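User: Predict the structure for this protein chain, please.
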Amino acid sequence: MWSIVLDAELRLKHCRTGIKALLNSNLKTNMNKNLKNYCFAVIIINWLKQ
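Assistant: Here is the predicted structure, written as structure tokens:
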């Protein structure tokens, strides 16, 4: 279980880093929250597909 959580956190970090690189570095906090939620949803969906 913990390995899955750690893997998801690592992927989330990469996901956020990738999106931030595409957008401006000075994102609004609200947008940051939305990105985090979106990335996490993508990770969960991908994990469920396995």
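The longest helix spans residues 2-22.
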